[in-house]
């Protein structure tokens, strides 16, 4: 236990922690901050989000046909308000844009008509018109909900996939596509940041000792070669710690995005145009991504630590992690963290991928511990 | 000489360098392979250039029209025989709901595709004058000011910038520089593919290798605890100078291998014969409603060479930057982290300076900002790509790094080594 504490101290040297802090800060500024600052900054994203919220307030987390009719009625009512808005303005009546219907289908090729339309939409940003646009989008999603059958593009649907999509279509679940997309973007970058942090902090764990020739002392004292196992465990503890801190910090910031309303909404929805294998609420989905980030972090830690024990110098250590990083950023994170359990992949893909990952991790762990017991340090 | 050889050996003896080179080349070839599907269609352009030359004038347009008519006629003969139907435009055949490509042999389909491409050229040529007369750069200035939130002095600079660009545009139109055939940018996006996707990927690959090697070679003595011997020898601390030369040479080697192999494959896959003299500002090269306008008349071949020169200069900058950091820090692991941090900071700072200060422009004169958009080098695209941007950056950083290196040497010469 004491050795683990000492080793933890070695990993979390002040110098390294400061560097990690600066790296994280820059990473947040360059990649993550955008999704905090610009969440719902644009239109009609903001309107869609607001209306989704209103729908949940009025209809609960599911919407049936009756409620949809009511939703449409509200739309008609707002449309009438828009008509009144247009008729109250001389220039619009003169240009023949006296009803919302005409306004929507106006020929924007013509200069003066385009200017009138732009005036309302982009210059004055009249809430009513943006809201109408958003409502139209949502109504269209609901009415064209059968298009969900085409979300899997590359191969024909299996019977199970069809079943799941049908369930989603009939469920009438309400979920905000903006909130969901935003979270997916964020968790992708947070996962990348965690991967970078772990690689950065764990890489020197064995290499440092070998380069200082401390390893000869370590292996010839009373604890002896058991220290290898202890250091691996230290690496895992450190990785767990780093991941927890990073995720904790992220979720504290994420609370500012105000998605509390949607946490209990089902993510299988015609409004997000997404179907998953399981009936997950947004909160459950978030928890699932957290679990997968942890598993990925631990598997990565073992690989990095063992690499650190084998690499002859820092150039190899960093160099060999370049392909690993490319693989993780370009492929693995997209399949194992973001949009997990999506319908496009087989139902057994995620469990088997993680079982495989855990198997590979534990195999490398035990193999390297066993190997280290007999390894010749001098040659 | 001998010392340089040994220093270079340190650079290339790690198997990781060769493994990364192979991996990176594989990634580049993979990118090219994924894009290679259009190579047959691109050949039509070479044929047209061979037949009519690339300069577009009334005579050439007339010839092209006649050629196009004969092609269309041939195609219609074919479709009449096959489907009992003729087309006014070859494009109509493909826009039909279910065009019956299965019924056609590969050769017959090729005839139709070729006609459609020639038709594309013929129709686009009619649009050139209209497109360029509709370009209103003062509108672009307004757009940029809105988009980047410029105001006051910076907005004035933006307006001034577009005035300059407008002069260049007038000059370009006057000289007919835009009236040249090239691969149709709207369809094939060859400029973006070569100079953005492929070139940027290569920049980062070479940068990774250069930083790894430079950090390794420079800190080698300290990392292997040979520094007490090496720096006490006759060559002494001048060894650091040899290391710098070896690093620069190693960087050039890496550039040569990655660029050489990738571009060789690129130009074997995509045939540019006959197109090397076509200006990069050609209307057909443009991919968006706003065309690429190079600040000087740059034929494709010269443009490519200029890009390669800037590419190599940037990599040499990265070498010297890493080298200077490494002399100070002496632990190459931290050197890599420091370089990454410097990169991040330099890019970050351009985004957080206030929009009203001119710092928003001059903070971009760093090699780190420069390498982010290789497809816009020497091209007037938005306020952040002024004339001479590339050369100014190169000159400023050459001076800056010369000073930094000199200071580094002075410091290292007097330093206590233990």
The coarse overall form of chain A would be elongated
Helix segment tally of chain A: 16
Total count of strands of chain A: 0
Distance between the termini of chain A: 31 Å
Which band does the percent of strand residues of chain A land in? Answer: under 5%
Q: Which two chains form the greatest contact, residue counts included?
A: A-B, 24 and 28 residues
* Total tally of structural domains of chain A: 2
Described by strand count, sense and barrel closure, the largest sheet of chain A is: none
Low-confidence stretches of chain A: none
Task: Kindly report the average pLDDT value of chain B.
Answer: 90
Radius of gyration of chain A: 27 Å
Using only CA atoms, what is the Rg of chain B? Answer: 26 Å
Structural class of chain B: mainly alpha
Main sheet specs of chain B: none
Keywords (chain A): Membrane, Transmembrane, Transmembrane helix
Organism (chain A): Thermolongibacillus altinsuensis
Protein name (chain A): ABC-2 family transporter
Keywords (chain B): Membrane, Transmembrane, Transmembrane helix
How would you describe the overall organization of this protein?
Chain B: This is ABC-2 family transporter. Chain B: The chain crosses the membrane at residues 12-33, 244-269, 302-327, 333-353, 391-410. Chain B: Keywords: Membrane, Transmembrane, Transmembrane helix. The complex is a heterodimer of chains A (379) and B (418). Helices cover 72% and strands 0% of the residues of chain A. Chain A is mainly α and 379 residues long. Chain A folds into two domains: 2-40 and 175-374, no CATH class; 45-157, no CATH class. Chain A is elongated, with a radius of gyration of 27 Å. By secondary structure, chain B is mainly α. Chain B has two domains: 2-37 and 137-414, no CATH class; 55-134. Chain B has helices spanning 2-12, 15-35, 39-52, 58-83, 90-95, 106-134, 137-148, 153-175, 185-188, 190-223, 227-230, 239-269, 300-329, 332-352, 359-362, 367-370, 389-414. In chain B, helix 12 (239-269) runs antiparallel to helix 13. At the A-B interface, helix 2 and helix 15 of A face helix 2, helix 10 and helix 14 of B.
